[in-house]
Amino acid sequence: MTVSFLSGNVHFVRDLVRRLFQRPVGELSDLPEIIVRPIGVVRNAVGEPQPPGFDWSAVKSRILVRPELADSLLGLETYSHVKVLFWPHLVPADVIGSKHRLHPRDDPENPLQGILATRSQIRFNPILVTAVPLLSVRGNAVGVRGLDAVNGTPVLDIKPLMAEFLPRGPVRQPAWSRELMRDYWRTT
To answer: Residues 158-180: pLDDT tens digits?
Structure first.
């Protein structure tokens, strides 16, 4: 009788754990695979990833949009800034999504963070976004300054920066991140 009682408890506990930690059916099980084709490529003088402290603010880049998409740039020149969405193509495939938590910049002095609470390039879908001043639009070439992407980086999208889509009210972020980013956008 003891054996069947223990056996029953084991099954009860196993079923309880399954119910408590089970993902709701259909909520995430049907996520489609997404295929994204770059709209263009970054061209600049920065040929390889740069160490922390590199001054990106002075880097001028041209984003060459695929020629068949050039007409989609109509009107972009009327904006002062754009957001550029790009893919860090030099991050090895086996590194992408390899960590759920890390110390930003691999510095143990920085607090351990979930990858989605950082701007790390090794995230699960490493789509990076930077808002930059727009310098020019000529044909299929978009000139920008301060884009923190190396030469050859695939560009996924370009969006005009509109004041109405900026945060309303104060932006909250941890003190360690302000310190970390203090000199990222130096003005030369």
So the answer is: 999 999 998 889 989 999 888 88
Under 8 Å between Cβ of 152 and 136: no
Q: Tell me which DSSP letter residue 91 carries.
A: S
State yes or no: pLDDT of 81 exceeds 90. Answer: yes
- DSSP-derived letter for residue 28 is S
Per-residue b or e along 160-181, where b marks 16 or more CB atoms closer than 10 Å to that residue's CB:
eeeeeeeeeeeeeeeeebeebe
Q: Which two tokens mark 68?
A: 């068949």
CB atoms within 10 A of CB 105: 12
Would you call 54 helix, strand, or coil by DSSP? coil
| Domain locations in the chain as residue ranges | 31-91+126-162+177-181
Tell me if 9 sits within 8 A of 127, measured CB to CB.
no
User: Tokens at residue 176, please?
Assistant: 């360690």
Q: In this predicted model, which residue has the larger pLDDT, 70 or 30? A: 70
Q: What is the CATH number of domain 31-91+126-162+177-181?
A: 2.40.30.70
Reported pTM: 0.80
